[in-house]
Known about the structure:
Structural class of chain A: alpha/beta
Order of helices and strands of chain B: EEEEEEEEHHHHHHHHHEEEHHHE
CATH class of the largest domain in chain A: Alpha Beta
Number of domains of chain B: 1
Number of helices of chain A: 5
CATH architecture of chain B: Orthogonal Bundle
Number of domains of chain A: 2
Structural class of chain B: alpha+beta
Radius of gyration of chain A: 18 Å
CATH architecture of the largest domain in chain A: 3-Layer(aba) Sandwich
Distance between the termini of chain B: 21 Å
Number of strands of chain B: 12
Shape of chain B: globular
Oligomer: heterodimer
Radius of gyration of chain B: 21 Å
Number of helices of chain B: 12
Largest sheet of chain B: 4 strands, mixed
Amino acid sequence: MRTTIWFLKGLRNGKKTEKFPKAHPEEPPLWPSKLAGNGTPECPTNAIEQGKWNAGKCISCRLCLPDYKPTGDQSSFRVSGKFPGILSRSFYLYPVDSGTCGACNTELLSILAPQFDASRLNIFFTNTPRHADALVLMGVYTEGMDQVISRAFEAMPDPKLIIALGACAISGGIIGKRPHLSKDSVIEIAGCPPSPYTILEALLRAREGKR
Amino acid sequence: MQYYKTARGNGRYIGQTRSYTIYSDSIDSPVKVEKKPADIIPGELVFNYGPSTGGMIESVRIALSTPGEMIRSVAVDPTYKLRTIKLSGLSLKDAFILVERINGYHSSSYQAAFLKAVEDALLTEQNTGLDEELILQMELERIRSHLNVLERLCEPAGFGVPYHQIAQMREEVTRVISSIFGHRYFFGVHNTPKPSVRIPSGIVTRTKDIETRFALLFESLQDSKIFVNRLQGNGKIEKVWLVGPAARAAGYKYDARIDSPSLDYGRYGFEPYIEDGKDAFARFLVRGNEIFSSFAIVNQIISNGRPDQANLMNIHGTGIGAARVESPQGDLFCYLSINNGSVERIEFCSPSVSNIIAFEQSMQGNIFTDFHFNWESFGIWISEAGVEIE
Protein backbone atom coordinates (compact mmCIF):
# COMPACT_ATOMS: atom_id res chain seq x y z
CA MET A 1 0.00 0.00 0.00
CA ARG A 2 1.27 3.44 -0.88
CA THR A 3 1.75 5.81 1.99
CA THR A 4 1.49 9.58 1.91
CA ILE A 5 3.13 9.92 5.30
CA TRP A 6 5.98 12.11 4.17
CA PHE A 7 7.98 11.56 7.34
CA LEU A 8 8.24 7.83 6.56
CA LYS A 9 9.05 8.54 2.94
CA GLY A 10 11.87 10.78 4.12
CA LEU A 11 13.28 8.06 6.36
CA ARG A 12 13.03 5.46 3.60
CA ASN A 13 15.11 7.65 1.34
CA GLY A 14 18.04 7.32 3.73
CA LYS A 15 20.87 9.74 4.36
CA LYS A 16 22.03 11.56 1.23
CA THR A 17 24.32 14.20 2.71
CA GLU A 18 27.97 14.10 1.73
CA LYS A 19 30.76 14.20 4.29
CA PHE A 20 32.05 17.41 2.72
CA PRO A 21 33.73 19.59 4.04
CA LYS A 22 35.37 16.96 6.32
CA ALA A 23 35.98 14.80 3.26
CA HIS A 24 36.76 15.74 -0.34
CA PRO A 25 33.84 16.68 -2.63
CA GLU A 26 32.22 13.56 -4.09
CA GLU A 27 31.53 15.01 -7.53
CA PRO A 28 33.34 18.31 -8.07
CA PRO A 29 32.69 19.92 -11.46
CA LEU A 30 35.59 20.65 -13.78
CA TRP A 31 34.12 24.04 -14.71
CA PRO A 32 34.28 26.13 -12.62
CA SER A 33 37.38 25.09 -10.68
CA LYS A 34 40.89 26.47 -10.25
CA LEU A 35 42.77 26.67 -13.56
CA ALA A 36 46.40 25.76 -14.04
CA GLY A 37 48.62 26.33 -17.04
CA ASN A 38 50.92 28.79 -18.66
CA GLY A 39 51.06 31.24 -21.53
CA THR A 40 48.73 34.07 -22.42
CA PRO A 41 45.76 32.50 -24.15
CA GLU A 42 42.68 34.36 -25.32
CA CYS A 43 40.57 35.55 -22.39
CA PRO A 44 37.54 37.84 -22.85
CA THR A 45 37.64 39.12 -19.23
CA ASN A 46 41.44 39.37 -18.86
CA ALA A 47 41.31 36.74 -16.13
CA ILE A 48 44.66 35.50 -17.44
CA GLU A 49 47.29 38.23 -17.63
CA GLN A 50 51.06 37.84 -17.61
CA GLY A 51 50.74 34.15 -16.94
CA LYS A 52 48.60 34.63 -13.82
CA TRP A 53 45.04 33.43 -13.42
CA ASN A 54 42.59 35.67 -11.54
CA ALA A 55 39.73 33.57 -10.19
CA GLY A 56 37.48 36.60 -9.59
CA LYS A 57 37.43 37.48 -13.28
CA CYS A 58 37.12 33.95 -14.72
CA ILE A 59 33.78 33.12 -16.37
CA SER A 60 34.61 29.50 -17.32
CA CYS A 61 34.20 30.21 -21.04
CA ARG A 62 36.90 27.61 -21.89
CA LEU A 63 38.55 29.81 -24.52
CA CYS A 64 41.88 29.36 -22.69
CA LEU A 65 41.92 25.64 -23.47
CA PRO A 66 44.33 23.90 -23.99
CA ASP A 67 46.88 26.34 -22.46
CA TYR A 68 45.00 26.38 -19.18
CA LYS A 69 43.11 23.40 -17.81
CA PRO A 70 40.68 22.98 -14.92
CA THR A 71 42.09 21.17 -11.88
CA GLY A 72 38.80 20.29 -10.19
CA ASP A 73 39.95 22.19 -7.07
CA GLN A 74 36.87 23.97 -5.71
CA SER A 75 38.55 26.36 -3.26
CA SER A 76 38.25 29.45 -5.49
CA PHE A 77 37.44 32.04 -2.87
CA ARG A 78 39.14 34.83 -0.98
CA VAL A 79 38.48 35.74 2.62
CA SER A 80 39.94 38.98 3.95
CA GLY A 81 39.45 41.09 7.06
CA LYS A 82 38.50 40.14 10.60
CA PHE A 83 35.21 38.54 11.56
CA PRO A 84 33.23 38.42 14.74
CA GLY A 85 33.51 35.02 16.40
CA ILE A 86 29.81 35.03 17.36
CA LEU A 87 28.85 34.01 13.83
CA SER A 88 30.17 30.49 14.36
CA ARG A 89 27.00 29.47 16.20
CA SER A 90 24.64 30.49 13.43
CA PHE A 91 25.22 32.31 10.20
CA TYR A 92 22.19 33.91 8.56
CA LEU A 93 22.44 34.96 4.91
CA TYR A 94 20.33 37.48 3.04
CA PRO A 95 20.81 37.02 -0.73
CA VAL A 96 20.29 40.00 -3.04
CA ASP A 97 20.18 39.71 -6.81
CA SER A 98 21.66 42.88 -8.29
CA GLY A 99 21.61 41.70 -11.90
CA THR A 100 22.22 37.99 -12.39
CA CYS A 101 21.56 35.55 -15.19
CA GLY A 102 19.92 33.30 -12.60
CA ALA A 103 22.73 30.75 -12.32
CA CYS A 104 24.33 32.19 -9.15
CA ASN A 105 20.90 32.32 -7.50
CA THR A 106 20.23 28.64 -8.09
CA GLU A 107 23.73 27.54 -7.10
CA LEU A 108 23.36 29.44 -3.82
CA LEU A 109 20.02 27.70 -3.18
CA SER A 110 21.66 24.37 -4.01
CA ILE A 111 23.58 24.44 -0.72
CA LEU A 112 20.23 23.54 0.87
CA ALA A 113 19.94 20.36 -1.24
CA PRO A 114 20.37 17.17 0.82
CA GLN A 115 23.79 16.47 -0.77
CA PHE A 116 25.15 19.66 0.88
CA ASP A 117 22.60 20.44 3.65
CA ALA A 118 24.02 23.78 4.79
CA SER A 119 21.72 23.85 7.83
CA ARG A 120 23.70 21.01 9.48
CA LEU A 121 26.61 23.48 9.47
CA ASN A 122 24.48 26.23 11.09
CA ILE A 123 24.17 28.19 7.83
CA PHE A 124 20.67 29.49 7.09
CA PHE A 125 18.83 31.89 4.82
CA THR A 126 16.65 34.68 6.15
CA ASN A 127 13.83 36.53 4.40
CA THR A 128 14.69 39.91 5.90
CA PRO A 129 17.95 41.87 6.17
CA ARG A 130 17.06 42.71 9.80
CA HIS A 131 17.88 39.14 10.81
CA ALA A 132 20.93 38.72 8.57
CA ASP A 133 24.60 38.39 9.46
CA ALA A 134 25.77 38.58 5.86
CA LEU A 135 24.45 40.12 2.66
CA VAL A 136 25.19 37.87 -0.29
CA LEU A 137 25.52 40.05 -3.34
CA MET A 138 25.06 38.45 -6.78
CA GLY A 139 25.11 39.81 -10.33
CA VAL A 140 26.31 42.97 -12.03
CA TYR A 141 25.52 46.58 -11.12
CA THR A 142 22.05 47.69 -12.15
CA GLU A 143 20.62 51.13 -11.54
CA GLY A 144 17.31 49.84 -10.18
CA MET A 145 18.88 47.61 -7.52
CA ASP A 146 21.64 49.96 -6.36
CA GLN A 147 19.56 51.77 -3.75
CA VAL A 148 17.72 48.59 -2.79
CA ILE A 149 21.05 46.94 -1.92
CA SER A 150 22.26 49.94 0.09
CA ARG A 151 19.03 50.07 2.07
CA ALA A 152 19.13 46.33 2.75
CA PHE A 153 22.68 46.67 4.07
CA GLU A 154 21.72 49.64 6.26
CA ALA A 155 18.85 47.61 7.72
CA MET A 156 21.17 44.81 8.85
CA PRO A 157 22.26 44.77 12.50
CA ASP A 158 25.97 44.95 13.41
CA PRO A 159 28.20 43.03 13.04
CA LYS A 160 27.52 42.47 9.34
CA LEU A 161 29.40 41.16 6.37
CA ILE A 162 29.20 41.52 2.61
CA ILE A 163 29.83 38.49 0.46
CA ALA A 164 30.36 38.92 -3.29
CA LEU A 165 29.21 35.73 -5.00
CA GLY A 166 30.17 35.00 -8.61
CA ALA A 167 32.32 36.70 -11.24
CA CYS A 168 29.71 39.43 -11.95
CA ALA A 169 29.59 40.58 -8.31
CA ILE A 170 33.39 40.40 -7.88
CA SER A 171 34.56 41.98 -11.12
CA GLY A 172 31.56 42.62 -13.36
CA GLY A 173 32.33 39.41 -15.28
CA ILE A 174 31.63 39.79 -18.97
CA ILE A 175 28.25 41.55 -18.68
CA GLY A 176 28.99 44.85 -16.95
CA LYS A 177 30.30 46.53 -13.80
CA ARG A 178 30.31 45.08 -10.31
CA PRO A 179 27.73 46.47 -7.83
CA HIS A 180 28.96 49.43 -5.72
CA LEU A 181 28.76 47.68 -2.36
CA SER A 182 30.82 44.73 -3.56
CA LYS A 183 34.00 46.78 -3.10
CA ASP A 184 33.42 46.41 0.65
CA SER A 185 33.05 42.65 0.48
CA VAL A 186 35.27 40.64 2.77
CA ILE A 187 34.50 37.34 1.12
CA GLU A 188 34.74 36.79 -2.63
CA ILE A 189 33.39 33.50 -3.94
CA ALA A 190 34.66 33.07 -7.48
CA GLY A 191 33.05 31.14 -10.32
CA CYS A 192 30.54 31.58 -13.09
CA PRO A 193 28.56 30.44 -11.22
CA PRO A 194 30.47 29.20 -8.13
CA SER A 195 29.66 25.56 -7.35
CA PRO A 196 27.86 24.71 -4.09
CA TYR A 197 31.12 23.13 -2.86
CA THR A 198 32.95 26.44 -3.27
CA ILE A 199 30.10 28.44 -1.71
CA LEU A 200 29.86 26.12 1.31
CA GLU A 201 33.58 26.03 1.98
CA ALA A 202 33.88 29.83 1.67
CA LEU A 203 30.94 30.39 4.02
CA LEU A 204 32.41 28.03 6.59
CA ARG A 205 35.78 29.73 6.48
CA ALA A 206 34.15 33.13 6.79
CA ARG A 207 31.90 32.04 9.64
CA GLU A 208 34.83 30.70 11.58
CA GLY A 209 36.74 33.90 10.93
CA LYS A 210 39.58 32.09 9.19
CA ARG A 211 41.38 33.59 6.25
CA MET B 1 15.89 32.97 -43.63
CA GLN B 2 15.06 29.46 -44.80
CA TYR B 3 11.97 28.78 -42.74
CA TYR B 4 10.60 32.08 -41.45
CA LYS B 5 8.97 34.46 -43.89
CA THR B 6 8.00 38.07 -43.39
CA ALA B 7 4.24 37.96 -43.76
CA ARG B 8 0.98 38.87 -42.01
CA GLY B 9 0.49 36.75 -38.91
CA ASN B 10 0.64 33.12 -40.05
CA GLY B 11 0.20 30.51 -37.35
CA ARG B 12 -0.13 30.95 -33.64
CA TYR B 13 1.04 34.09 -31.84
CA ILE B 14 4.37 33.65 -30.02
CA GLY B 15 5.26 37.13 -28.78
CA GLN B 16 7.15 40.31 -29.59
CA THR B 17 10.76 41.21 -30.16
CA ARG B 18 11.91 44.83 -30.31
CA SER B 19 11.17 45.08 -34.06
CA TYR B 20 8.81 42.20 -34.88
CA THR B 21 5.69 40.33 -33.93
CA ILE B 22 6.46 36.63 -33.96
CA TYR B 23 4.05 33.94 -35.09
CA SER B 24 4.75 30.24 -35.40
CA ASP B 25 5.12 30.48 -39.19
CA SER B 26 6.01 34.10 -39.92
CA ILE B 27 7.35 37.34 -38.56
CA ASP B 28 5.35 40.52 -38.91
CA SER B 29 5.75 44.24 -38.19
CA PRO B 30 5.54 45.16 -34.51
CA VAL B 31 2.29 45.79 -32.71
CA LYS B 32 2.51 48.45 -30.06
CA VAL B 33 0.92 47.11 -26.90
CA GLU B 34 0.28 49.75 -24.29
CA LYS B 35 -0.11 48.51 -20.78
CA LYS B 36 -2.71 50.52 -18.92
CA PRO B 37 -2.05 51.09 -15.24
CA ALA B 38 -4.67 49.48 -13.02
CA ASP B 39 -7.43 51.77 -11.71
CA ILE B 40 -7.09 52.60 -8.07
CA ILE B 41 -10.27 52.18 -6.08
CA PRO B 42 -10.58 54.38 -2.96
CA GLY B 43 -9.79 52.41 0.18
CA GLU B 44 -7.99 49.71 -1.75
CA LEU B 45 -4.61 48.52 -0.53
CA VAL B 46 -1.69 48.18 -2.95
CA PHE B 47 0.69 45.68 -1.45
CA ASN B 48 4.20 45.90 -2.89
CA TYR B 49 6.10 42.65 -2.85
CA GLY B 50 9.81 42.94 -3.64
CA PRO B 51 12.02 43.85 -5.43
CA SER B 52 14.25 42.13 -2.88
CA THR B 53 12.38 39.81 -0.60
CA GLY B 54 12.30 36.28 0.72
CA GLY B 55 10.57 33.62 -1.28
CA MET B 56 11.62 34.95 -4.67
CA ILE B 57 14.72 33.67 -6.44
CA GLU B 58 15.32 36.86 -8.43
CA SER B 59 14.70 40.57 -7.92
CA VAL B 60 11.23 41.57 -9.08
CA ARG B 61 8.56 43.91 -7.76
CA ILE B 62 4.99 42.72 -7.72
CA ALA B 63 2.21 45.16 -6.83
CA LEU B 64 -0.94 43.44 -5.64
CA SER B 65 -4.10 45.57 -5.44
CA THR B 66 -6.65 44.25 -3.02
CA PRO B 67 -9.79 45.56 -1.34
CA GLY B 68 -9.35 42.92 1.33
CA GLU B 69 -8.54 39.29 0.80
CA MET B 70 -9.22 38.97 -2.93
CA ILE B 71 -6.57 40.15 -5.40
CA ARG B 72 -8.18 42.55 -7.88
CA SER B 73 -5.16 43.27 -10.04
CA VAL B 74 -1.46 42.47 -10.23
CA ALA B 75 1.39 44.37 -11.88
CA VAL B 76 4.81 42.74 -12.26
CA ASP B 77 7.83 45.00 -12.75
CA PRO B 78 10.83 42.97 -13.96
CA THR B 79 13.02 46.03 -14.66
CA TYR B 80 14.69 46.53 -11.25
CA LYS B 81 17.53 44.24 -12.27
CA LEU B 82 17.49 45.36 -15.89
CA ARG B 83 20.75 44.35 -17.56
CA THR B 84 21.92 45.66 -20.90
CA ILE B 85 23.78 43.12 -22.99
CA LYS B 86 25.49 44.52 -26.07
CA LEU B 87 25.89 41.95 -28.82
CA SER B 88 25.97 43.92 -32.05
CA GLY B 89 29.41 44.19 -33.60
CA LEU B 90 30.74 41.14 -31.78
CA SER B 91 32.02 38.05 -33.54
CA LEU B 92 29.69 35.06 -33.29
CA LYS B 93 32.09 33.37 -30.89
CA ASP B 94 32.19 36.39 -28.54
CA ALA B 95 28.44 36.98 -28.79
CA PHE B 96 27.83 33.34 -27.91
CA ILE B 97 29.48 33.79 -24.49
CA LEU B 98 27.01 36.58 -23.70
CA VAL B 99 23.99 34.79 -25.18
CA GLU B 100 24.62 31.90 -22.75
CA ARG B 101 24.24 34.36 -19.90
CA ILE B 102 20.91 35.98 -20.84
CA ASN B 103 19.26 33.30 -18.73
CA GLY B 104 21.99 31.18 -17.19
CA TYR B 105 19.59 28.62 -15.76
CA HIS B 106 18.34 27.96 -19.30
CA SER B 107 21.55 28.67 -21.17
CA SER B 108 21.25 25.66 -23.46
CA SER B 109 17.90 26.90 -24.82
CA TYR B 110 19.57 30.21 -25.68
CA GLN B 111 22.58 28.38 -27.13
CA ALA B 112 20.26 26.29 -29.32
CA ALA B 113 18.19 29.27 -30.52
CA PHE B 114 21.36 31.21 -31.36
CA LEU B 115 23.19 28.33 -33.09
CA LYS B 116 20.15 27.38 -35.16
CA ALA B 117 19.70 31.03 -36.18
CA VAL B 118 23.37 31.10 -37.27
CA GLU B 119 22.77 27.92 -39.27
CA ASP B 120 19.65 29.46 -40.84
CA ALA B 121 21.40 32.76 -41.63
CA LEU B 122 24.42 31.23 -43.31
CA LEU B 123 22.32 28.59 -45.10
CA THR B 124 24.46 25.77 -43.83
CA GLU B 125 23.01 22.28 -43.94
CA GLN B 126 21.40 20.91 -40.81
CA ASN B 127 23.96 18.93 -38.85
CA THR B 128 22.01 16.04 -37.33
CA GLY B 129 24.84 15.33 -34.86
CA LEU B 130 24.72 18.89 -33.59
CA ASP B 131 20.91 18.79 -33.42
CA GLU B 132 21.13 15.64 -31.33
CA GLU B 133 23.59 17.33 -28.97
CA LEU B 134 21.41 20.42 -28.61
CA ILE B 135 18.33 18.29 -27.98
CA LEU B 136 20.24 16.32 -25.31
CA GLN B 137 21.26 19.60 -23.64
CA MET B 138 17.76 21.05 -23.81
CA GLU B 139 15.97 17.97 -22.50
CA LEU B 140 18.34 17.66 -19.53
CA GLU B 141 17.79 21.36 -18.93
CA ARG B 142 14.01 20.85 -19.14
CA ILE B 143 14.14 18.04 -16.55
CA ARG B 144 16.13 20.23 -14.18
CA SER B 145 13.94 23.29 -14.79
CA HIS B 146 10.68 21.39 -14.28
CA LEU B 147 12.10 19.77 -11.11
CA ASN B 148 12.94 23.26 -9.92
CA VAL B 149 9.34 24.43 -10.47
CA LEU B 150 7.94 21.37 -8.67
CA GLU B 151 10.39 21.93 -5.81
CA ARG B 152 9.31 25.57 -5.55
CA LEU B 153 5.64 24.48 -5.49
CA CYS B 154 6.34 22.21 -2.50
CA GLU B 155 8.01 24.99 -0.51
CA PRO B 156 5.01 27.29 0.16
CA ALA B 157 2.90 24.20 0.90
CA GLY B 158 5.30 23.40 3.74
CA PHE B 159 6.06 20.01 2.19
CA GLY B 160 9.61 19.65 3.51
CA VAL B 161 10.20 16.04 2.55
CA PRO B 162 9.22 16.23 -1.14
CA TYR B 163 10.87 19.66 -1.35
CA HIS B 164 14.20 18.21 -0.27
CA GLN B 165 13.80 15.01 -2.27
CA ILE B 166 13.18 17.00 -5.46
CA ALA B 167 16.12 19.28 -4.56
CA GLN B 168 18.23 16.14 -4.31
CA MET B 169 17.08 14.98 -7.76
CA ARG B 170 17.70 18.43 -9.23
CA GLU B 171 21.25 18.35 -7.90
CA GLU B 172 21.72 14.83 -9.32
CA VAL B 173 20.53 16.00 -12.76
CA THR B 174 22.95 18.94 -12.50
CA ARG B 175 25.75 16.46 -11.80
CA VAL B 176 24.72 14.39 -14.81
CA ILE B 177 24.92 17.58 -16.89
CA SER B 178 28.32 18.40 -15.40
CA SER B 179 29.66 14.91 -16.10
CA ILE B 180 28.57 15.05 -19.77
CA PHE B 181 29.23 18.70 -20.62
CA GLY B 182 31.93 19.67 -18.12
CA HIS B 183 29.94 22.62 -16.73
CA ARG B 184 26.90 22.51 -14.45
CA TYR B 185 25.13 25.15 -16.59
CA PHE B 186 26.45 24.17 -20.05
CA PHE B 187 28.63 27.32 -20.27
CA GLY B 188 31.36 27.15 -22.89
CA VAL B 189 30.34 23.78 -24.34
CA HIS B 190 30.60 25.09 -27.89
CA ASN B 191 33.68 27.25 -27.32
CA THR B 192 36.22 24.51 -26.91
CA PRO B 193 38.71 23.79 -29.67
CA LYS B 194 38.35 20.05 -28.98
CA PRO B 195 35.14 18.13 -28.25
CA SER B 196 34.22 18.45 -24.59
CA VAL B 197 31.04 16.39 -24.60
CA ARG B 198 31.52 12.87 -23.31
CA ILE B 199 29.04 10.25 -22.22
CA PRO B 200 30.44 8.64 -19.04
CA SER B 201 29.74 4.96 -18.44
CA GLY B 202 26.77 4.22 -16.22
CA ILE B 203 25.00 7.46 -17.02
CA VAL B 204 21.88 5.69 -18.40
CA THR B 205 21.55 3.69 -15.17
CA ARG B 206 21.82 6.93 -13.24
CA THR B 207 19.17 8.79 -15.23
CA LYS B 208 16.81 5.79 -15.05
CA ASP B 209 17.27 5.68 -11.27
CA ILE B 210 16.36 9.39 -10.95
CA GLU B 211 13.34 8.83 -13.19
CA THR B 212 12.11 5.87 -11.11
CA ARG B 213 12.38 7.82 -7.86
CA PHE B 214 10.70 10.84 -9.42
CA ALA B 215 7.78 8.68 -10.63
CA LEU B 216 7.06 7.53 -7.04
CA LEU B 217 7.30 11.05 -5.67
CA PHE B 218 5.15 12.57 -8.42
CA GLU B 219 2.45 9.97 -7.76
CA SER B 220 2.55 10.67 -4.02
CA LEU B 221 2.18 14.41 -4.56
CA GLN B 222 -0.92 13.78 -6.70
CA ASP B 223 -2.31 11.59 -3.89
CA SER B 224 -1.89 14.37 -1.34
CA LYS B 225 -5.17 16.26 -0.95
CA ILE B 226 -3.45 19.04 0.99
CA PHE B 227 -1.03 19.67 -1.86
CA VAL B 228 -3.57 19.30 -4.67
CA ASN B 229 -6.04 21.66 -2.95
CA ARG B 230 -3.47 24.47 -2.99
CA LEU B 231 -3.12 24.17 -6.77
CA GLN B 232 -6.56 23.23 -8.08
CA GLY B 233 -8.59 26.22 -9.24
CA ASN B 234 -5.60 28.49 -8.56
CA GLY B 235 -4.53 30.82 -11.39
CA LYS B 236 -6.92 29.64 -14.12
CA ILE B 237 -6.13 31.00 -17.56
CA GLU B 238 -7.05 30.02 -21.09
CA LYS B 239 -5.78 32.32 -23.84
CA VAL B 240 -4.70 31.50 -27.38
CA TRP B 241 -1.47 33.45 -26.89
CA LEU B 242 -0.21 31.25 -24.05
CA VAL B 243 3.10 29.47 -24.59
CA GLY B 244 4.86 26.45 -23.14
CA PRO B 245 3.49 24.44 -20.20
CA ALA B 246 0.90 27.19 -19.50
CA ALA B 247 -0.59 26.65 -23.00
CA ARG B 248 -0.40 22.86 -22.77
CA ALA B 249 -2.14 23.03 -19.36
CA ALA B 250 -4.99 24.94 -21.03
CA GLY B 251 -5.58 22.28 -23.68
CA TYR B 252 -3.52 23.82 -26.50
CA LYS B 253 -1.12 21.53 -28.35
CA TYR B 254 1.48 24.28 -28.62
CA ASP B 255 5.07 23.12 -28.58
CA ALA B 256 8.03 24.25 -30.69
CA ARG B 257 9.27 20.66 -30.56
CA ILE B 258 6.47 19.70 -32.96
CA ASP B 259 5.73 22.96 -34.81
CA SER B 260 9.17 24.50 -35.38
CA PRO B 261 11.57 23.20 -38.03
CA SER B 262 14.61 24.38 -36.04
CA LEU B 263 15.18 21.09 -34.24
CA ASP B 264 13.87 17.72 -35.42
CA TYR B 265 12.23 15.86 -32.55
CA GLY B 266 10.37 13.51 -34.90
CA ARG B 267 12.89 10.71 -34.67
CA TYR B 268 12.34 10.40 -30.89
CA GLY B 269 8.60 9.72 -31.19
CA PHE B 270 7.83 12.79 -29.09
CA GLU B 271 4.24 13.89 -28.46
CA PRO B 272 3.32 16.85 -26.20
CA TYR B 273 1.44 16.11 -22.97
CA ILE B 274 -1.80 18.10 -22.77
CA GLU B 275 -4.06 18.90 -19.79
CA ASP B 276 -7.24 20.98 -19.79
CA GLY B 277 -7.53 22.15 -16.17
CA LYS B 278 -6.08 25.59 -17.05
CA ASP B 279 -4.90 26.08 -13.44
CA ALA B 280 -1.71 25.71 -11.41
CA PHE B 281 -2.47 22.01 -10.88
CA ALA B 282 -2.70 21.42 -14.64
CA ARG B 283 0.63 23.21 -15.09
CA PHE B 284 2.08 21.00 -12.35
CA LEU B 285 0.80 17.87 -14.15
CA VAL B 286 2.16 19.04 -17.52
CA ARG B 287 5.61 19.71 -16.07
CA GLY B 288 5.70 16.43 -14.15
CA ASN B 289 4.71 14.39 -17.20
CA GLU B 290 7.14 16.27 -19.43
CA ILE B 291 9.96 15.13 -17.16
CA PHE B 292 9.19 11.55 -18.26
CA SER B 293 9.09 12.42 -21.98
CA SER B 294 12.37 14.31 -21.61
CA PHE B 295 13.99 11.35 -19.85
CA ALA B 296 12.85 9.11 -22.73
CA ILE B 297 14.60 11.39 -25.26
CA VAL B 298 17.72 11.76 -23.11
CA ASN B 299 18.04 8.00 -22.68
CA GLN B 300 17.70 7.45 -26.43
CA ILE B 301 20.45 9.95 -27.23
CA ILE B 302 22.96 8.92 -24.58
CA SER B 303 22.51 5.27 -25.52
CA ASN B 304 23.69 6.17 -29.04
CA GLY B 305 27.07 7.50 -27.90
CA ARG B 306 28.67 10.91 -28.29
CA PRO B 307 26.87 13.53 -30.38
CA ASP B 308 28.61 16.40 -32.25
CA GLN B 309 29.34 19.94 -31.10
CA ALA B 310 29.21 23.27 -32.87
CA ASN B 311 32.41 25.09 -33.60
CA LEU B 312 32.00 28.83 -33.85
CA MET B 313 35.72 29.52 -34.05
CA ASN B 314 35.98 30.23 -37.76
CA ILE B 315 32.50 30.95 -39.06
CA HIS B 316 32.28 33.79 -41.56
CA GLY B 317 29.49 34.88 -43.85
CA THR B 318 26.59 37.27 -44.22
CA GLY B 319 22.89 36.57 -43.88
CA ILE B 320 19.71 36.80 -41.85
CA GLY B 321 18.41 33.86 -39.86
CA ALA B 322 15.74 32.98 -37.36
CA ALA B 323 15.09 30.03 -35.09
CA ARG B 324 12.49 28.98 -32.54
CA VAL B 325 13.03 26.32 -29.89
CA GLU B 326 10.97 25.07 -26.95
CA SER B 327 12.66 26.22 -23.77
CA PRO B 328 11.28 24.79 -20.50
CA GLN B 329 8.98 27.84 -20.14
CA GLY B 330 7.82 27.95 -23.76
CA ASP B 331 8.75 29.25 -27.20
CA LEU B 332 12.11 31.01 -27.42
CA PHE B 333 12.67 32.86 -30.69
CA CYS B 334 15.93 34.34 -32.00
CA TYR B 335 16.30 36.73 -34.96
CA LEU B 336 19.89 37.20 -36.10
CA SER B 337 21.49 39.32 -38.79
CA ILE B 338 25.14 38.47 -39.50
CA ASN B 339 27.55 40.67 -41.43
CA ASN B 340 30.82 39.00 -42.38
CA GLY B 341 30.91 36.78 -39.32
CA SER B 342 29.82 39.47 -36.86
CA VAL B 343 26.47 40.10 -35.24
CA GLU B 344 24.76 43.00 -36.97
CA ARG B 345 21.40 42.76 -35.18
CA ILE B 346 19.98 40.25 -32.76
CA GLU B 347 16.60 40.05 -31.07
CA PHE B 348 15.06 37.49 -28.75
CA CYS B 349 11.46 36.77 -27.85
CA SER B 350 11.55 35.15 -24.41
CA PRO B 351 8.74 33.03 -22.96
CA SER B 352 8.87 34.66 -19.52
CA VAL B 353 7.48 37.89 -21.00
CA SER B 354 4.33 36.04 -22.09
CA ASN B 355 4.20 34.09 -18.82
CA ILE B 356 4.34 37.30 -16.76
CA ILE B 357 1.24 38.61 -18.58
CA ALA B 358 -0.45 35.24 -18.08
CA PHE B 359 0.39 35.35 -14.36
CA GLU B 360 -0.98 38.89 -13.97
CA GLN B 361 -4.25 37.96 -15.64
CA SER B 362 -4.64 34.60 -13.90
CA MET B 363 -4.08 36.10 -10.45
CA GLN B 364 -7.18 38.32 -10.63
CA GLY B 365 -9.87 37.01 -8.32
CA ASN B 366 -7.53 34.75 -6.38
CA ILE B 367 -6.54 35.34 -2.78
CA PHE B 368 -3.12 36.27 -1.44
CA THR B 369 -2.31 32.78 -0.14
CA ASP B 370 -2.60 31.52 -3.75
CA PHE B 371 0.07 33.96 -4.88
CA HIS B 372 3.25 31.91 -4.43
CA PHE B 373 1.78 28.73 -5.88
CA ASN B 374 0.51 30.54 -8.93
CA TRP B 375 3.75 32.48 -9.47
CA GLU B 376 5.91 29.36 -9.25
CA SER B 377 3.58 27.35 -11.49
CA PHE B 378 4.52 29.58 -14.47
CA GLY B 379 8.28 29.08 -14.00
CA ILE B 380 9.01 32.77 -14.73
CA TRP B 381 12.64 33.91 -14.99
CA ILE B 382 13.24 37.65 -14.56
CA SER B 383 16.75 37.43 -16.04
CA GLU B 384 15.24 36.86 -19.50
CA ALA B 385 12.31 39.27 -19.07
CA GLY B 386 14.28 42.15 -17.55
CA VAL B 387 17.06 42.40 -20.10
CA GLU B 388 17.85 44.69 -23.02
CA ILE B 389 19.70 43.11 -25.91
CA GLU B 390 21.52 45.59 -28.11
